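Support request from a user on the community tier.

User writes: "When I paste my structure tokens into the form, the page sometimes reloads and wipes my input. The last time it worked, I copied everything first. Here is what I submitted, just in case something in the input itself triggers the reload:"
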């Protein structure tokens, strides 16, 4: 296209809530079942904000019979309905049809809130084919209808006489144009609602499920808070506690904090965290503070009482092995990662939570010596088991005949450590990225294996073809654990294996091909938690002497929205890892203290099998069906 044909008429301006309908994935994470349920969480969290700030005590949720429509009601103050002085429209209409309109930007309305972006309820409105809102306040009752981000009726007073109480009722049906024929999962909603009552003592939640025959009604109210929640989770997951009592901490001063934890006989560590009532599934700075404070407290206790046998030196992982913990914090200005709020990024929360947990836990251990003795025995056992495993692993020769000529593609630049516990392997896309990774890595603990181009699709290839593929066999050779009947996980040379690809469609494709190979031929590495997806940034944002790194467009927009209006940011989009300087790659993706990475887990093996067969198998019709069923989700991606 020539410049003469590119004019002002070619520029598209998205008005109102059009951006949400154009790119829903940026606001709710996707247009799959998880994204549709996110609409429910947005409205429920608004109701919970009323509870957090002392304005409400009850939330009623009703799932209608077809499973496609839901209603959330609270007894809070009710959304304001008076005319906004500047925009000359009812506040209710303004909130639901305008991005970044709400009462949570100023501290006078909400001290703590799970939603500060001002986009939650308006996003639900934009992505609903129908929405009805009823407000009770100031002795009256009003109602208004909406559809696809626009007002479908005028705000109307419905009460003929004075109304008692106050609150908001929101009923909506997600748009079939966006979500297709998806239905709500009653059990998922029930579990999420009950968790709210553990987090907020005194809150009563009533859930009516009309999809059940006969209709089912559940009431949830838990005055025991996180302590009750911890007991339920330990029982449900059939974990055996090390001691009969849990440690709990409630701090009322800002930042408000509640914590419940105990050690179990399990070998894994399980922490569930919340920020302002929002589940932070990817953790964040508050969870980091819990981990560091806990480890310091235990180490101080062990040192003070000289309880460790000679030669036993527990690591942080040994101390936290078998831990089950629930952490809930309240932050005045929460900085969430993305609109889906899956991770808390407030840097000050690490030291604040650490400073609250460490002295309290150490005091509890000192005051409960019998419990402390059981915890210490558990930690010593974990340490000895790890040392025994390492000793066994070191019996195996870690060094193979792999060439160290780094100028050859697909060859290993190994680390100097021979301890699998400390060693990490980064499988990197391309020689250029591999060069940056080699320069930015910690040569003692981090190895780099560059790959050339897209690897073989292991789903469509037989074992003989896989065994004859040089790229895949380079990976197997570097790992040291063998493949097929020769596989032995005890010979694995690296405790963590990272797939480090460009943050674009091609990079995601290569990651998928490698994950397919691991799942089909080395599944125990995934099951044991050794495989990770590295998270290199797609953007660098320099503004007001600060630098921000954004993983994707949604995170970039989130950073930009938080900048002052007079700040003009400089934005750089990386076309690939090879464009990043070694120090940048180290700071954002390689350094364990600063990187963000995703551990690969498979919660549902049957679903994983189905998805791999449809996406990567030889049956083109299955793949076509999979893609067409998720076409809207693909449209939401900005690649």
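"...and here is what came back when it finally went through:"
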């Amino acid at each position: 296209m020539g410049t003469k044909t590119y004019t002002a008429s070619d520029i598209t301006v998205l008005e109102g809530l059009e951006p949400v309908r154009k790119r829903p994935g940026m606001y709710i994470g996707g247009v799959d079942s998880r994204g549709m349920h996110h609409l429910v969480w947005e409205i429920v969290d608004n109701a919970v904000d009323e509870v957090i700030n002392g304005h409400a005590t009850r939330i009623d949720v009703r799932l209608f019979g077809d499973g496609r429509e839901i209603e959330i009601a609270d007894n809070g103050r009710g959304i304001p309905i008076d005319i906004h002085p500047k925009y000359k429209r009812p506040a209710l209409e303004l909130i639901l049809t305008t991005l970044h309109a709400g009462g949570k930007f100023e501290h006078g309305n909400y001290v703590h809130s799970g939603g500060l972006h001002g986009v939650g309820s308006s996003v639900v409105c934009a992505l609903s084919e129908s929405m009805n809102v009823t407000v009770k306040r100031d002795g009256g009752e009003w109602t208004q209808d909406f559809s696809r981000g626009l007002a479908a009726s005028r705000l109307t007073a419905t009460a003929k006489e004075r109304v008692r109480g106050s609150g908001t009722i929101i009923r909506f049906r997600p748009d079939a144009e966006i979500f297709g024929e998806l239905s709500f999962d009653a059990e998922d909603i029930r579990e999420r609602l009950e968790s709210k009552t553990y987090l907020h003592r005194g809150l009563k939640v009533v859930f009516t499920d009309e999809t059940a025959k006969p209709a089912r009604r559940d009431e949830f109210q838990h005055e025991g808070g996180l302590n009750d929640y911890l007991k339920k989770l330990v029982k449900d997951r059939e974990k055996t506690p090390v001691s009969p009592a849990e440690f709990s901490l409630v701090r009322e001063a800002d930042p408000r904090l509640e914590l419940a934890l105990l050690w179990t006989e399990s070998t894994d560590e399980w922490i569930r965290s919340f920020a302002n009532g929002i589940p932070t599934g990817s953790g964040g700075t508050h969870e980091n503070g819990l981990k560091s404070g806990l480890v310091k407290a235990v180490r101080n206790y062990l040192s003070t009482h000289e309880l460790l046998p000679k030669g036993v030196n527990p690591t942080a992982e040994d101390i936290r092995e078998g831990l089950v913990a629930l952490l809930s914090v309240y932050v005045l200005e929460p900085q969430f990662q993305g609109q889906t709020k899956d991770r808390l990024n407030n840097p000050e929360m690490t030291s604040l939570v650490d400073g609250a947990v460490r002295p309290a836990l150490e005091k509890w251990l000192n005051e409960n010596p019998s419990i402390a003795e059981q915890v210490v025995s558990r930690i010593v056992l974990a340490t000895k088991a790890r040392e025994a495993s390492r000793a066994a692993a070191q019996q195996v020769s870690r060094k193979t005949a792999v060439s160290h000529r780094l100028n050859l593609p697909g060859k290993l630049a190994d680390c100097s450590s021979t301890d699998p516990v400390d060693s990490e392997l980064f499988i990197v896309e391309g020689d250029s990225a591999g060069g940056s990774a080699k320069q930015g890595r910690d040569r003692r603990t981090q190895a780099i294996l560059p790959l050339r181009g897209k690897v073989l699709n292991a789903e469509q290839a037989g074992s003989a073809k896989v065994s004859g593929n040089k790229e895949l066999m380079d990976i197997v050779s570097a790992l040291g654990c063998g493949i097929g009947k020769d596989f032995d996980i005890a010979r694995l040379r690296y405790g963590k294996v990272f797939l480090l690809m460009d943050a674009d469609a091609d990079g995601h494709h290569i990651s998928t091909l490698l994950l397919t190979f691991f799942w089909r031929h080395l599944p125990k590495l995934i099951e044991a938690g050794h495989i990770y997806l590295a998270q290199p940034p797609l953007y660098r944002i320099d503004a007001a002497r600060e630098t921000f790194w954004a993983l994707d467009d949604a995170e970039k927009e989130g950073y930009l929205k938080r900048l002052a209006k007079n700040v003009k940011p400089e934005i750089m989009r990386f076309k690939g890892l090879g464009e990043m300087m070694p120090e940048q790659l180290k700071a954002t993706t390689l350094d364990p203290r600063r990187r963000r990475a995703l551990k690969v887990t498979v919660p549902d093996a049957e679903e994983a099998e189905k998805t791999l067969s449809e996406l990567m198998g030889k049956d083109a019709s299955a793949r076509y069906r999979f893609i067409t069923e998720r076409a809207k989700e693909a449209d939401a991606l900005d690649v």
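Agent notes: The reload is a front-end session timeout and is unrelated to the input. Residues 235-393 form a domain with the Ribosomal Protein S5; domain 2 fold (CATH 3.30.230.10). Confidence is low (pLDDT under 50) at residues 1-14, 103-118, 396-410, 630-639. Escalated to web team.
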